[in-house]
Structure formats: structure tokens, C-alpha cells
Amino acid sequence: MLDDITRISSEFDSALASANTAAALDDLRVHYFGRKGGLIPALFSRLKEVPKEQKKDAGDALNKLRDRLESELKEKSERVTAEESARKQSRDIIDVTLPARIPHLGHLHPVTIIRREMETIFSEMGYSLDPGPEVESDWYNFEALNFTPDHPARDTQDTFFLDADAPPRGEGSGRLPYLLRTHTSNVQIRSMENHTPPVKVLSCGRVYRRDEITMRRSPMFHQAEGFLVDKGIHIGHLRATLEHFIKRLFGADSKMRMRPSFFPFTEPSAEVDMSCVFCKGAGCGTCSHTGWMEILGCGMIHPQVLRNVGIDPEEWSGFAFGLGLDRCAMIKFDIPNIRTLFENDLRVLQQF
Q: Taking each helix axis from N to C terminus, what angle separates 325-332 and 110-124, rounded to the nearest 10 degrees?
């Protein structure tokens, strides 16, 4: 019995020295004084087995051990609890004399950067900004823009149509469907309906088409549409406007060329290429070794489009152009995959 008391006393001293948290000290208390399995109660229960001539010495030694262990355990528990309470209070105290923490600021999305730059450029040229509605009727998205009834863009395989019907408009009969706009050209019709020429408007926003997600295509993307209607406007005004825009956005050394094309709402129509920003026109893999990159489509507003909104094409003329903001961001920031723009990867966004 005396040997066990000596051993337990030594083990307790070692365990007490290493217990430096309230939880550890509570575990130590349970280990030595717990009602079930505690070492000290177990020693007291063994006193009846000690021979009579040794019982007095064993009882005295056991009482002294119990009192010492209880006293030392209580003293350290009170000290550790006080220290933990002091540390918690110090954490809760706000030192108003410390310098303010600089807040973590977010980053502009690459498409937002391009949109803001483009809006600034055209605002300086006197253009109004109008994002227009994303849910549109067939009249504003197709019919008023001179799309024929059998045009592929009006097929459900290319356009997201909605269940609701829009009121009839124009010369067609019956009710026309609502849809998610396929381009920002709908703003061109709405602006010409609501404003008497001269009018200059730039519209930037989301558009939707039934495209598969690839490196260069997405069912939702961003587009910009600009147009101008005034007296005496010709294709030279269009070219000068686009050259100014491209040089401002991509650099003063950028070159531009126009190629004949076709769009239902412009006549004549053109595709616009700019010199490759990576090889400066020398030819590389990005531009298929041509030195040119397609950037936008444009043309003179079709006379029938002007008639559809009540503007006399004999008195007024205008031009329009449209481009993808996502493509501009990919070119300017050298982003090879359009999916990178929509994955919200902070490793990418924090670069802007």
C-alpha cells in the first residue's frame, strides 16, 4: 500500500506539471478523484485489505496524499482559470490607438473593365448609355430589325423563347413571343422609337443564344451595340468612329480594315478586323498567321429599319455596329478560353 501511495504521488506531480489548461486539469481531477475509477478512492477501498498493524500508517499516508493532491490541484486550477480568463478579456478588448485595418477590396471583372472603358470612350463622343431590357419581344429583337420570318436566328434551336406572348406590333398579325434577347440591337429600335433624330446611343449588356459552351462560345455572353442617326451620315463617319474606338481600347498602333458582309439590319454591311495585338500584324498562331483578328460587325442602318420606327430614310441616315465584350476582354487580357471569364476563379480575378 505504501509503495502504491509513493508511486501515485510521484505520477501526480509529473501529470500536474504538464497540465496547463482548465480542461487538462479537470481530466486530472477525474483521473485521481473520480467516483468511478478514481485512483484515490480506489486506494481508500483497499484499506480494509491492509494488515491491522500497518493500517494506521497506511491510513495516515493516504489522508496526507489526498489532502496534498486536492490542495495542489485546486491551487493550479484557480491559477490557470484566472490566466485563461485574462487572455480572453485581452482578446475582446479593442485598442482604438492601433492603426485601422485596411479592408480587403474586391476586383473588377475583366468584362466590367472593358465595358467601362468602352462606355467612357463613347460617352466622350456624345453617346447616351442605355442597357435596355434582356427580356424582349420578337418585334424589337427580330422583326423591326428586318429579320425575315424564316431567318435561322428566329428558330427555337438558336433562341431562348419564353412561354408568355407579347402584344402584336408592326405589320404582322397575331401575338408575338417574348424571348431572351439575342443581341443588344433591340435598344436601337427602342431608342429610335422614343427619340427624334439626331440620336446616338451605346448599349452594353447580357445577351443569350442556344450555343454549346466551348472555348469561344457561351449561351450567355456580353455584347455592345452602338448606333448613330443624323442627316448626311455616311460610311466614312462609321469608319472614323470605329478607328478611334479601336485605337483608344487596344492602343494607338492598332490598325483596322473592313470586309464586305451581310446583316439583315444594315446595308451595306461589313466585318471589321484589327491588327493582331500579340504579333502586331506579323502573323502568329493566335491570328492564324494572318496578322488580323475579327473584332466586330457594322454597317449603315437599313432604310427599312428606319421606316419601321417612323424615320424617313430620305431625310435621315445612320450607322450601327456590334461587338462582343467577352471577346474584347479575351483579346486585351490574353485570355484563351471564354469559360475562364465565368468560373469566378479568384486566382484569375485578383489579377485585375
A: 110
CATH classification of 110-349 is 3.20.20.30, yes or no? no
* Nearest in space to 191 (alpha carbons), one of 146, 151, 133, 114: 133
Task: Please give the pLDDT value at position 117.
Answer: 96
Question: What pLDDT digit, counting tens, does each position of 207-232 carry?
Answer: 998 877 777 778 888 999 999 999 99
Pick from 110, 160, 112: nearest CA to 338? 110
- Residue 54, amino acid: Q
- Cβ-contact 294, 211 below 8 angstroms: no
Average pLDDT over residues 226-243: 96
Q: How many CB atoms lie within 10 A of CB 182?
A: 21
Candidates 274, 329, 280; CA nearest to 297 is 274
8 A C-beta contact, residue 253 and residue 280: yes
Cis amide leading into 268 (omega within 30):
yes
Q: Edge-to-edge strands of the sheet including 199-208?
A: 128-129, 199-208, 220-230, 317-324, 292-301, 266-275, 256-263
- What is the CB neighbour count within 10 angstroms for residue 351? 9
Residue whose entry in the numeric block shows the C-alpha cell 406590333: 169
Residue 252 CA from chain centroid, whole number: 31
Q: The dihedral of CA 339, 344, 347, 351: what is its sign?
A: positive
Are 99 and 145 in contact by the 8 Å Cβ rule? The answer is no
Sketch the domain layout of the chain as residue ranges: 2-92, 110-349
Burial class of residue 349, CB neighbours in 10 A (0-12, 13-18, 19+): middle
- The pTM assigned to this predicted structure is 0.66
On the question of pLDDT at 327 being above 70, the answer is: yes
Q: Does residue 177 contact residue 161 with C-beta atoms inside 8 Å?
A: yes
Q: How far apart are CA 223 and CA 203, in angstroms?
A: 8
For cell 505520477, the residue is 11
Written as one string, the DSSP assignment of 213-236 is --SS--SEEEEEEEEEEETT--HH
pLDDT interval class at 233 (50, 70, 90): very high
